[in-house]
Design goal:
The complex is a heterodimer of chains A (about 70) and B (about 375). With about 70 residues, chain A is mainly alpha-helical. Helix content of chain A is about 50%, strand content about 10%. Chain A has one domain. In chain B, strand 1 and strand 2 form a beta hairpin. Chain B is globular, with a radius of gyration of 23 Å. The chains are: A mainly alpha (about 70), B alpha+beta (about 375).
Chain lengths: ~70, ~375
């Protein structure tokens, strides 16, 4: 969360992604950084043990939401 | 005179303060979540002043900062939490040395207390301050029963929660944590050690009092009451140090907290601490096949964590290195003595501390 917020503040478009297990921690960190309403993307837990095919599938599924938060012109 | 004794009431005098008032204060602290779950001691300015009088440092001095949270702990805040933890004012110089050692180690300032790994800080106290404030270095050294051990360790946890805001389920993301998160402060049983104490080994004077601090995950115990053969005992320890479950990144590090009986087994056979370290280094390595069996035979090019050789992030494996060392050098093993001299029992503390660098040790100041 901290990296995403700091990148955005530095003018670098960024979206943070975390698994659903980390949502309370993510909100707490965003609040520490003075951005309690910071919008981020969540995905099902776990992530670390997924194989390449499963990671690719997650990425495809998350992409529209990432693009929406980034605000890409259509 | 005998009559006067009989004139005394059969029970204690009623307390001057109603327990309900004490409980009101305790519950207030609990409602504010200024606690590790146990009751804390209420602190007023007058009580705080007794702690601050024990140090020459300015109350505004920063003892540890966490830049990524934009939060810092001052001497005053450390004192408030030491008092809340149940410390006596005379313990405060040890608490301050603990913060200095934690700061010097470097893991805490980089956010390890927020990690899913769920570590705890272990404090090891050496020198005359042990006797002066009643720190236990003998029987039940990792257990309960001694105010100085219990409350100095607890003061660190309360500060983590109250000053840095590391509440579990929120900024403290520990998957399971460890019982050591309540408190982990031991003293070395220097008097029962056949070797140089930990702090002297690292350049301090025997008359110095010091705190060594390190991030730990587990305290695994070694039961070996049957042997006077140093190699047997050392193998038991080495195989515990090298267990694959403890392997997160490439190598690990450990503190051997030897019971006095085990320390004597080694010393009687003529082993020095360095002999023991070298033996542990040589025998804690795992075969590449054993590491492959648990999917930890390679290292990630990104995180340096262990993963299977076939993983897309895996660095190329050097098959000529077999067995694979669990430690980066013999110096990744610290050796100390603690506990009662009553059984062949020791412990391996699995530390995330210095892997071959000297441990972080701070001198206890302002003791006079």
């Amino acid at each position: 969360m901290a990296d995403g917020i700091l990148l955005e503040r530095a003018g670098v478009p960024a979206v943070s992604i975390c698994t659903d297990s980390f949502v309370p921690a993510a909100r707490a960190m965003a609040t520490v950084y003075g951005f309690p309403a910071y919008e981020f993307v969540t995905m099902p837990h776990p992530l670390a043990s997924l194989d390449q095919r499963q990671i690719d599938a997650c990425a495809r599924e998350l992409l529209p939401e990432l693009v929406r938060i980034l605000g890409v012109e259509s | 005179m005998a009559a006067a004794v009989h004139d005394k009431p059969p029970v204690a005098e009623p307390p001057l303060v109603d327990a309900a008032e004490i409980r009101t204060a305790m519950e207030y602290y609990a409602r504010q979540e200024w606690t590790d779950g146990l009751p804390v001691v209420p602190v007023t300015e007058s009580y705080l002043a007794e702690f601050l009088a024990r140090t020459s440092r300015d109350p505004k001095d920063v003892v540890l900062a966490m830049p990524h949270l934009n939060r810092e702990c001052t001497v005053r805040l450390a004192a408030i939490n030491a008092a809340m933890a149940g410390c006596l004012p005379e313990y405060f110089p040890v608490v301050l040395a603990a913060w200095e050692a934690l700061d010097g180690e470097g893991y805490v300032t980089r956010g390890i207390w927020q990690s899913t790994t769920g570590t705890a800080p272990l404090l090891i106290v050496n020198g005359p301050v042990r006797d002066r404030i009643g720190l236990n270095s003998a029987g039940n050294v990792f257990g309960s029963g001694f105010r100085a051990n219990a409350t100095i360790g607890r003061s660190i946890r309360l500060t983590a929660i109250n000053v840095f805001g590391l509440h579990p389920h929120l900024l403290d993301q520990a998957t399971q944590g460890t019982p050591a998160k309540y408190s982990a402060c031991i003293a070395e049983n220097e008097e029962a050690s056949p070797w140089t104490p930990l702090h002297v080994e690292h350049g301090f004077d025997p008359a110095d009092s010091t705190v060594t601090a390190m991030v730990i995950r587990s305290v695994a115990h070694i039961e070996a009451r049957h042997t006077q053969v140093p190699e047997q005992l050392a193998l038991d320890i080495a195989w515990t140090v090298g267990r694959t479950g403890a392997m997160v990144i490439g190598t690990t590090s450990a503190v051997l907290v030897l019971g006095p009986e085990h320390a004597k087994v080694f010393a009687t056979a003529g082993w020095t601490k360095d002999d023991l370290r070298q033996f542990i280094y040589d025998h804690s390595a795992s075969s590449r096949a054993d590491l492959a069996a648990v999917g930890k035979d390679a290292i990630s090019r990104h995180t340096r964590w262990r993963l299977p050789a076939g993983h897309p992030d895996a660095l190329p494996v050097d098959a000529s290195i077999d067995p694979v060392p669990a430690l980066n050098s013999p110096a990744a093993v610290q050796v100390m003595v603690a506990g009662a001299d009553n059984a062949g029992v020791s412990a391996v503390v699995e530390s995330m501390g210095a892997r071959g660098n000297p441990p972080s040790i701070a001198k206890v100041r302002d003791l006079e």
